[in-house]
């Protein structure tokens, strides 16, 4: 199969002919119909993820058709249209048995723990707990984004952040995760304020439901405090920046909630005194398990959520290495989908 292969961290990957994955007992192999280009892929390419072993094929947002079914798998057949969370849970550990597959103790992530979906085929383990059947009306490009950015934002906003109608919610970073969060929080009835350095991204945020958009600067907090009459109930770092974290915590009103989704490979220093004194909540959120997809898919089917509108660019496998490298200069507005 053809795949995007990383052979050295930070060096432009190339599209090569490599061996296709073999189906394992309990798993399936998918023909990749669409896969998303995500900032997490850039972090992996830069060497920020200790689980990656070179040479490596990135890619973890995916949708496709089942090409092979492993021994012991029931209820799934070749040709079925599916997607999967980017966290493939084992289904049997303590956390999985409690329904928390997003923090599975033996999780396997395509594009990180093993070769991913920037390829014509990808393997998915533990099919019984990780496959999500796609409605016929949902196209593969839209479905690919559900596996990471949109699903991650849905769980972060609705389940972890507990966003409610009427609350002020400040979203920092308007890439795929941030714009998804804008759309979801707005659909829940929150008043959303989007913050980004890119005016084009802010225009997209406004079109997806943001009530206010703010061009980011080193002095953004006073403007946010004024817009929220003293502080937001919820803030979210959808990019991953130590500076954003500080701004997000300072922009909260007492007993506010901060949701951290963006990765922080360089670490961060928190004002713990403020965290304690204002009784703020710091909430980490990491993906969403397959069993939680039906609520999200129902909202998509009803038209209350429209993740297809987030897609701003579709590229080929051959264009992917350059697009991955371009993330060094910032995340482009919207979602980029790759069609292998």
TrEMBL record:
Tagged with keyword Metal-binding: yes
Domain annotation Enoyl reductase (ER): ranges: 10-338
Superkingdom of the organism of origin: Bacteria
Cofactors: Zn(2+)
Keywords: Metal-binding, Oxidoreductase, Zinc
CDD domains: Zn_ADH6 (cd08260)
Keyword check for Metal-binding: yes
SMART domains, A to Z: PKS_ER
Pfam family for this entry, one: ADH_zinc_N
PANTHER family membership: ALCOHOL DEHYDROGENASE-RELATED, L-THREONINE 3-DEHYDROGENASE
Family: Belongs to the zinc-containing alcohol dehydrogenase family.
Record protein name field: Zinc-dependent alcohol dehydrogenase family protein
Record organism: Kribbella ginsengisoli
């Amino acid at each position: 199969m053809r795949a995007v292969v990383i052979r050295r961290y930070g060096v432009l990957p190339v599209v090569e002919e490599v061996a296709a994955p073999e189906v394992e007992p309990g798993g399936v192999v998918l023909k990749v119909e669409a896969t998303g280009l995500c900032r997490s892929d850039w972090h992996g390419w830069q060497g920020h993820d200790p689980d990656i072993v070179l040479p490596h094929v990135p890619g973890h947002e995916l949708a496709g058709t089942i090409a092979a079914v492993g021994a012991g798998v029931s209820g799934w057949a070749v040709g079925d249209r599916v997607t999967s969370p980017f966290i493939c849970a084992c289904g049997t550990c303590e956390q999985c048995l409690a329904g928390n597959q997003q923090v599975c103790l033996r999780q396997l992530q395509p594009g990180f723990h093993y070769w991913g979906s920037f390829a014509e085929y990808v393997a998915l383990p533990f099919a019984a707990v990780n496959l999500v059947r796609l409605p016929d009306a949902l196209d593969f490009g839209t479905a690919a984004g559900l596996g990471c950015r949109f699903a991650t934002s849905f769980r972060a906003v609705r389940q972890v952040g507990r966003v409610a109608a009427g609350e002020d919610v400040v979203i920092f970073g308007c890439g795929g995760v941030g714009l998804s969060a804008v759309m979801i929080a707005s659909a829940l009835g929150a008043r959303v304020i989007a913050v980004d350095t890119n005016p084009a991204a802010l225009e997209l945020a406004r079109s997806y439901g943001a009530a206010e958009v703010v061009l980011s600067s080193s002095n953004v907090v006073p403007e946010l405090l004024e817009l929220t009459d003293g502080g937001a109930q919820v803030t979210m770092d959808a990019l991953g920046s130590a500076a954003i974290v500080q701004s997000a915590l300072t922009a909260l009103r007492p007993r506010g909630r901060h949701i951290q989704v963006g990765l922080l490979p360089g670490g961060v220093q928190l004002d713990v005194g403020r965290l304690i004194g204002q009784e703020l909540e710091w909430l980490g959120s990491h993906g969403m398990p397959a069993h939680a997809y039906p609520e999200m898919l129902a909202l998509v089917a009803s038209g209350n959520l429209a993740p297809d509108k987030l897609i701003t660019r579709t590229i080929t496998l051959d264009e992917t290495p350059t697009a991955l490298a371009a993330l060094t200069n910032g995340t482009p507005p919207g979602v980029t989908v790759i069609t292998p």
